[in-house]
Amino acid sequence: MRSRSFLAALVCAAVGLSHAAPTAEPDPKFAVSVQIAGSTLTNKGLVGFGRIPSNFRESTGDTFGGAGSAIYIKRGSFKKTSNGTFTGTLIMQPDRGFNVITTIDYRTRQFVVDFSLQPYYGDADLSFADAQETLSLKYRSTLLYTERDGKKPTGLEPLGVRAKDGRAGIQPEADPAMPIASASDNRLSIDAEGLAINPDGTWWTSDEAGPYIYKFNSGGFLLQTIQPPQAFLPLNNGSLNFTEAVDPQTGRAGNKGFEGLTISPTGDKLFALLQSATVQDGGSDKSTSRFTRMVGYTIPPANEELNIEPTLFGEWVVPLPVNSKQNTLAQSEFHYLTDTTFFVLSRDANGGGGSPSTSSYKQADLFDISGATNIRGTKFDNPKNPVSPDGVLDPSITPATYVPFVNFLDPVQLARFGLHNGNPTGSQLIDSKFESLALAPVNDPKFPNDYFLFTASDNDFISTQGFFDGVPFNGGEDIDTQILVFRVTLPNVAPGSIEQAISI
Ligand SMILES: *[C@@H]1O[C@H](CO)[C@@H](O)[C@H](O)[C@H]1NC(C)=O
Ligand SMILES: *[C@@H]1O[C@H](CO)[C@@H](O)[C@H](O)[C@H]1NC(C)=O
Ligand SMILES: *[C@@H]1O[C@H](CO)[C@@H](O)[C@H](O)[C@H]1NC(C)=O
């Protein structure tokens, strides 16, 4: 239990959130500061919580789920109203659909969800009902993804390979060999994980299977595919096999592709990060999989008509944290702060929807590559040359600097919003799989470097009242989509440079 006066508890319970005297600023006692790349960054605590119930159905009639796999605050949507409430629009991109008990043939898509954030800075624990008033969410619409020729991408296991597109002159970059559902089902198989929206409304989606980065136009049509170096590709005896069910001989491990995708505010630099090490770098075992790889591409000025090929300008090794058993805490998302410093979401798989329900690590940490070795174009792009054979880093490589930062599991912060870590299960248990990050400026003249950090969970579509394509499914329990909002100070980021098109 948290210590606070009995009287305060009584008053809070009696009047509820809406009548409590609003505290305009975070309580300084919640602040936790860290240093990275010569700057001090501060976590000022949890300020908002929202949820979308597990049985909610979107406009197609399907269960709304998986939505926290990737989020992006729509450019130009974030606004501060005169009464101190913030409003905006989240674009949320689910992954491959329900596949916990049965596997559904889920078409890749994204959701538009409006939000209203009324930050809570008080010390007292809110009731769970009042906590949800701090971030209210309203689903608006669904956009389904499509290939150029009209084919509908699917989340089915990619058992087949579509040969490299040999067409010349149709566009500067024809497709590389693509993951498809099977030899007889030529639909592109996408297990979407990352989302980065360009200033012109086109966007990039990263996936697990390729691991590839796909560019879509604002209508959801596939425009272009980025294939990373050989070292990343799932190869068996020199041939591509995109299945996620088993590890390839070399390349990204099964179901451990490009979980992380992020873009500079101007859209000129795009970065992708593997969930954990490639197989040759130790990725087949949790005890040796911490040295993961990041790629960086320069993107020519966005132009829907001319898909000029992005240029790989860097590749770096990021050392993920490990737990007390030395097992890797894999990453599920990262987010651009500067050309060299990034947020990264590393965690275990425990909590709501996972087992056990007590999580020991769920954090938005930081890493910096200013002193790290750029291995682009070196022997390490050949899968024969691991950067960390059996999990031991090659001494010629300096990895990124990694610093723990925002702890989602802080019991005092969770309790302020009616949440907890560990049993009992239910809506107030923090979800296991937080998988996304977004930033928006607080626009407080007293704290010009303060930002809201949003993170949402992937509930794996788990609902006892699941619905897909008109057919019910039962996921065995009810796991809501949860969204947490923290307030952070990021002084090495010039105000407005993050999601700069976000208006205030
Ligand atoms: C603040 O204003 C917005 C719209 O301007 C409104 O939707 C919201 O309910 C208001 N919030 C409070 C706490 O008055
Ligand atoms: C890839 O491997 C899976 C599982 O081992 C197998 O079922 C599938 O046929 C393979 N696909 C190709 C294109 O070789
Ligand atoms: C690789 O080739 C060897 C030799 O032909 C074969 O025995 C083995 O099954 C192949 N492995 C895979 C994963 O295809």
Automatic annotation (TrEMBL):
One family name in Pfam for this protein: Phytase-like
Keyword Disulfide bond part of the UniProt annotation: no
Record-annotated Phytase-like domain positions: 176-395
InterPro entries for this protein: Phytase-like_dom
PANTHER family on file: BLR7070 PROTEIN (PTHR37957), PHYTASE-LIKE DOMAIN-CONTAINING PROTEIN (PTHR37957:SF1)
Taxonomic lineage of the native organism: Eukaryota, Fungi, Dikarya, Basidiomycota, Agaricomycotina
Stretches assigned to coiled coil: none
Keywords noted in UniProt: Signal
Name of the protein described by the UniProt record: Phytase-like domain-containing protein
Provenance organism: Sistotremastrum niveocremeum HHB9708
